[in-house]
Amino acid sequence: AQSVSQHNHHVILSEAASLELGCNYSYGGTVNLFWYVQYPGQHLQLLLKYFSGDPLVKGIKGFEAEFIKSKFSFNLRKPSVQWSDTAEYFCAVRVFSGGYNKLIFGAGTRLAVHP
Amino acid sequence: DVKVTQSSRYLVKRTGEKVFLECVQDMDHENMFWYRQDPGLGLRLIYFSYDVKMKEKGDIPEGYSVSREKKERFSLILESASTNQTSMYLCASSPGTVSQPQHFGDGTRLSIL
Prior knowledge:
heterodimer, A: mainly beta, six-stranded mixed beta sheet, four-stranded antiparallel beta sheet, 12 strands, 57% strand, B: mainly beta, three-stranded antiparallel beta sheet, globular
């Protein structure tokens, strides 16, 4: 069955540290890839997405993600985090099979950034 | 700016009650979604609607039904609430050309006692 794994459930960083959140999926066919973010007390919002083309995708607020097809991964990165990046981050993968498609979310990673 | 409004932020109901969660979007979006969000499980799709009166089951439709009588409103119904339906419920919408949820509401935290 298709699944999305976010290996780190909780991450704690100091400000200015670099961030990498892992996302792996299990599906060998065509995929679209997404990262969503939920700041404390706010609604979920799209951070970035990959459909095709350049595997390095840049999103809002200095985030980027790299699609590595051979590793079935779409890790989220930011060179220098800020306290305001404290949030929960969800990876999601849309899988396509024939005329059917399905969006699968990972379990989420809670990031806490300390000043 | 797109707004997806869920009628309640917090709701407490009793086992066996029929519960209605309401969602309204103001951007004339064709697609509307209901998810539940549970710790360690991420978001799971309950139901999806791509047009008025049209609906499709998601991954976990059991115990739920939906209603879309008007384009802007998508209601989630718990026919007979049970304690395992205690969760955060998220509504979302997107234009017909965008198949993934694009705009989310603030969520309804539902507790079933």
